[in-house]
Amino acid sequence: MLDLPNALMVRLDHHANHAPQRTALSDGEQRLSYTAVIHHIAQRRQRLRTAGARRVALALDNGLEWALWDLALMMEACVAVPIPDFFSDQQRRHIVDQAGLDSWIGHGGEAYGFQPIGDAVIAQRQVELPPQLPTGTTRITFTSGTSGSPKGVCLDNAALLTVTESLAAVVEPLAIHRHLAMLPLATLLENIGGLYLPLWLGACSVLPSLTSLGWQGASGFSAPIALESIARYQPNSMILVPQLLQALVSHAPTSPHSLSFVAVGGAPVANTLLAHAQGGGWPVFEGYGLSECSSVVCLNRPGEPSCGVGRPLPHAQVRIDQDGQLHVRGALMLGYLGEPPSGDWHATGDTGQWQGDTITLSGRQREVFITAYGRNINPQWVEGELCTQPAIAQAMVYGETLPANRALIVPATTQLTDAQIDAAIQAVNLTLPDYAQVHEWQRVPPFTPNNQQVTANGRLRREALLAAYGHWLTAAATLSQEGAIS
């Protein structure tokens, strides 16, 4: 562990010197000033040194402890490995082995061989030959990807703080004073945008427990509880995934007055949802990014017309190849865990096009399907429109080689009847061209990170859904008694 200069620590020192009693972190009950945060970080750094911790799992709920330990790990240049609460036991075992973790902060470490060492929080295990990591790795963020085994994205502090500084340049004119962390801090998007960015700006990061914000396990979310929290904490900024935005806007069409910046990303946002939100005064700004690029790459700017996912951030360069695939340079990962180092450009697998100096996305290269009539369809477009209906919480659309598109539908509540769901689908069909309409559907249980059917940011894991429902999704169409294809 090296005591390296750190740009974020320099910012913390600056704020502590100029406004020592300004609140930096709060969980709704306890508040810590910038001076206190620096003191707590120093204490935790010493505990990490005493324990000899090098590769450390961070398995805590959102709150002051998560933030303080994360900052201490960053300043101490340990390898921090956030453990999402929704990861299964098998996935956690995979992470412990693949990353060669020697320390565990939080609950549940004993199941993976970590034992108390005398520190009240840190548990450890013996690791004889830890797997080799790319030089400079200080963060491994595990993404579910398209397989059940999480894939480790190795990052360094410089990349994380480069993105933080870029985001600060975008939002600084808004004079944000309070950010409310609505997503798990174990997700890189909230970690950077909801913790590092407010501290960089000299603002307050409000970090209540996820349950108090309306999260009900990995598959449930109570918009009324979330709106009560927004009213209580009066945040100026939040980060949301599309499903959360849909739930909040459905319950509160008019934006809470304190908000000046709501970033939305992690998965494609339907144009209809954006229009509804912005029509109600929600200050929504769509962005785009991925873990391999240290989260945010593009973002719409306040004061500019909204277009696609916005312009690249100051640190990022984007080029689009002849197949429409986006390639990104700037603040890239060092490499995937256990694989060769990355190059200067990262091929994202996402397709899009330039519209002036902004980017509009088309979808994922491997997700577009071709119907029996030869029409290419991006399912994300249709799914996004379906999910703007209050009756539909989630949807997955499929039509490869089929004469009629099929959809898996997760109802907003279990009380909804099939007739109500069908009416919602037909309402969307009226707005779609015939080749994109949904003509067959099946109601299914929620897609969650726990059942491996969505990622942490809500992006569908189509291979997992095809494995679970492929017998119906891919079944050949048959002729009905009336002679129509069904």
Explain this structure.
There is one protein chain. The protein has 486 residues and is of the alpha/beta class. It is built from twelve helices and 28 strands. The strands form eight sheets. The protein has a five-stranded mixed beta sheet, with helices on one face. It has a five-stranded mixed beta sheet with strand order 14-15-16-17-18, sandwiched between helices. A four-stranded mixed beta sheet has the order 2-1-11-10. α9 links the parallel β15 and β16. It is globular.
Mean pLDDT: 91
- Describe the largest sheet: 5 strands, mixed
Strand content: 15-25%
Report the strand count.
28
Helix content: 25-40%
Tell me the span between the first and last alpha carbons.
Answer: 63 Å
Tally the helices.
12
Order of the strands making up the biggest sheet: 4-3-5-7-6
Estimate the global geometry from the Cα principal axes. globular
SSE arrangement:
Layout: H1 7-18, E1 23-26, E2 31-33, H2 34-51, E3 55-59, H3 64-75, E4 79-82, H4 89-99, E5 103-106, E6 115-116, E7 122-124, E8 139-143, E9 151-155, H5 157-171, E10 178-180, H6 188-201, E11 204-206, E12 215-216, E13 220-221, H7 223-233, E14 237-240, H8 242-251, E15 261-264, H9 271-279, E16 284-290, E17 295-299, E18 311-312, E19 317-320, E20 325-329, E21 335-336, E22 346-355, E23 358-364, E24 369-370, E25 376-377, H10 379-386, E26 392-398, E27 405-411, H11 418-429, E28 438-443, H12 462-473
Parallel strand pairs: 1-11, 3-4, 3-5, 10-11, 14-15, 15-16, 27-28
Antiparallel strand pairs: 1-2, 5-7, 6-7, 8-9, 9-21, 12-13, 16-17, 17-18, 19-20, 20-22, 22-23, 24-25, 26-27
Helix pairs in contact: 1-2, 2-3, 5-6, 7-8
